[in-house]
Amino acid sequence: MKKIIVDEKYDNKRLDKVILQELPYVNINTFYKTLRKKDIKVNNLRVNCNVIVHKGDELTIYINDNINENKFKLDKLYEDENIIIIDKPIGIEVTGKNSLTEIVHNLYKEKEFKPMPCHRLDRNTIGLILYAKNKEALEILQEKFKSRQIEKHYLALVYGNPRKNEENLTAYLFKDNKKSKVYISDVPKKGYTKIITKYKVLNRNADNTALLDVEIKTGKTHQIRAHLAYIGIPIIGDGKYGINKINQKFKKKYQMLISYKIKFAFTSDSGILNYLNQKEIVNTQIDLKNFNK
Question: 69-147, superfamily in CATH?
């Protein structure tokens, strides 16, 4: 059984939209099968049609508590005694209720220390997430991310012609929590945080798109998406910072952005993780043209 309290972003939305977004391991067929069986309640009343829900409604879905483990297979690209690197799929948060971390914890439920993520990705950004399997590794990795001794590389398909083949971008970012959006400025302002985004053009295409390798030196919410849009090369498929007409032209509903490489570039002692220094974990199974369908 799963419970969901409808929040503001789902106010006046269909029941299926809420459940499929909040429980990404439930597919549309499972949803309608559960609905027909009247195994979904809205405010403690059973429903058998796709009703409209509102902020504050309580949804109860009677499905197997282990459906996430049975139907949602984690793609582990690397694992040892201290870390796991997982390829996160689209449509799921890294932390919180019904998140990737909740699924990971369920798979490692017999362990005294449940693996913890060392960084984040947006819900609709896919790619590599690094988890620590013990407290010592977690503390080391958090410090290494803070001191920029771990490189995070992304592939981004953008619309437009980058002015340089390689560039180190510096700007300032403000996060508006109420609008769930960030804003970029060229100059320091009150409430803005400095960000550094580095890109390298891997390919310039005839359709006015370019494939970039992007490395973030500062990991802020929506940093890559907002920063690239700000300089005039928005990521294709990005509904928040992109261009709707372009997204429709390329038939992309989600941002063409993937975290594809993590490199451990330690410049100081790393304790039990010294063996990882200079190691790269790369997702090589990527369709560079359609990697985020």
Answer: Pseudouridine synthase (3.30.2350.10)
